[in-house]
Write a structure and sequence with these properties.
6-stranded parallel beta sheet; Rossmann fold; homodimer; elongated; 3 domains; DNA-binding
Amino acid sequence: MVNIYEIAKKAGVSHMTVSRAFNNPELVSEKTRNKIMKIANESGYRPSQVARSMRTKKTNYIGLILPDIINPFFPEIVRGVDDYARKDKYNVILANTDNDYEVQASLVEMFLSRGIDGIILSGIAGGKKDTELLNNIIKKGIPTVLIDRYIPDVNSSYVITDNFRAAYDATNYLVGLGHERIGVISSPQKIKIFQDRLRGYKAALNDNDIVFRDEYIFEGDESISSGYKTAKNLFTKYDDFTAIFAMCDFMAFGIYKYCRENNIIIPDDLSVISIDNIYTSAFLTPPLTTMSQKKYEMGYSAAKILIESIKKNKIPDTQLVLKAKLIERQSCKKVK
Amino acid sequence: MVNIYEIAKKAGVSHMTVSRAFNNPELVSEKTRNKIMKIANESGYRPSQVARSMRTKKTNYIGLILPDIINPFFPEIVRGVDDYARKDKYNVILANTDNDYEVQASLVEMFLSRGIDGIILSGIAGGKKDTELLNNIIKKGIPTVLIDRYIPDVNSSYVITDNFRAAYDATNYLVGLGHERIGVISSPQKIKIFQDRLRGYKAALNDNDIVFRDEYIFEGDESISSGYKTAKNLFTKYDDFTAIFAMCDFMAFGIYKYCRENNIIIPDDLSVISIDNIYTSAFLTPPLTTMSQKKYEMGYSAAKILIESIKKNKIPDTQLVLKAKLIERQSCKKVK
DNA sequence: TCAATAACTGTTATTGATAACAATAGTAAC
DNA sequence: GTTACTATTGTTATCAATAACAGTTATTGA
């Protein structure tokens, strides 16, 4: 690859003038600039980002760490991040962790060593070690934004859904259809945002004078298979639920599977509502009614918050809470 | 961030010894090495990848260009790429193009300027400009591997499914169930791999002494909505198909939607088979019978081919063809 | 005991850009 | 004609590492 000195030589100027022609064109006379640009084009010259990063201490890379891109919750987030980032000439380094703490930690090491400008962490679990890791990153002064998670006592930026409200609205919708016995297929309660969803469920019941029962809560792990298993548990213990509130679409997929295999007709025998609205939920039979999370916007906003703070050279401190929206399809029905 | 000189100073050695301790530990005495490593750890020293890249002309980055990560065909590929890459300490830069040629070209520019070590191109359309772009990259000596595409007359590496065979097997499976009037919802025939699929369909008909009819082919664009529209076209023109072969799962999703809205029962009234096996196809009602493409393996192998060739410092020249596998679910039925 | 060799460690140059400061030329004002 | 200023361009140092080569010990064998 041709470098800045060769271009300078061909154009009969110093390399600094070439550098300026690219980075501060207003400092170079139009005539010189045109000449330089012409020669640069002809020679296929491109300023080396590596050399530039060496000097400026900025790489224009942001790291995006998530559990598993195969989970359909994430691609839209990734797309949002990439779209915003590229507008500003940043590139996204994607990495999957499978929620493995060691992997997460080694990725952060790798990113630091690469001098990336900021990190977006999606779906970090929030245990003790995660908290420690996050604190460490923040202490090092690397701008970081969380997506779909927040960690109490850690002062970091994040973008989340109003989870309390989403669960409240979902539950309220079911109650509005006449349901009173509503089971919950819950995501792990050790994670803060799922506690918020449970609180939303409780609050909605309470506001409708329905008694909350702890034994109606069945906890899974966010996978389809755990939705299936948990539904099975639920139905072996009780057979009189008229509705289920699942905390994520994936677990609703598992419920659908269980119901199909056991001749439980959705929505005639059972209403199902969940939270997420992943891309294929509309194509289940019946199409899934769900609280749509603004996944693309979460990614887009997180990238915006991150990159703006990188440019201002300060740690981001924005907390953004987005509203979920009820997508009424056909998995819920009025109870007789 | 602390640099190599500070570590050298603290350890009472030259910076080269520190460099060697990290890169060629066998050249440094155990005693010195341990001391250096201890000090490096305590100081939180990490060799700067940027400076290293500056000198070695290798960045350990690979670029992954694809149309749209939201399309469920791609996440598994991405996962495969990332998994292989990270084993070898490479990181993946992800970028979406929406099949826009300009975006594609500017990404390639960006990647070149960043000095990435290789490119994986997934789902490149294959028109004249794409061919030109690809030829350009190859001419520059940047290792490149295509996924799910190959371009005639361009001598590049690729990883694809045996598309002829996949379509042949799908069609043959339908014929085996007694179907003779089999419509095709086709992906764009300007793309080579889809021509191969059509040839597979024809060959299977031919081998079973069924006459091929051009007017049974309806071309869509790989989206769900085009599957829907194309199905509509098909059913307004004909009402006696017993089966449809869709060239991708997404278009099968569209067919399902059309059928649900028009009281056509799958598989009683219509058998549907397709190619892909994206993650949620198993959760349609009825679960979709489809030829599973080894998406994860495609990504993994492409990364392997690419990175191995990067390490050997030569252009990759491997063409890998993977077999698709029939996943028999419940969308196809014996015809009476 | 000394030369030859092996095992380590060090010095200097280099990578391709930008930062900081220096210098020059040209123009306007006095 | 000199000064002051602006616009433009140039020189040198710097960023943090590795490459290439040079040196220094330590060890071995005759």
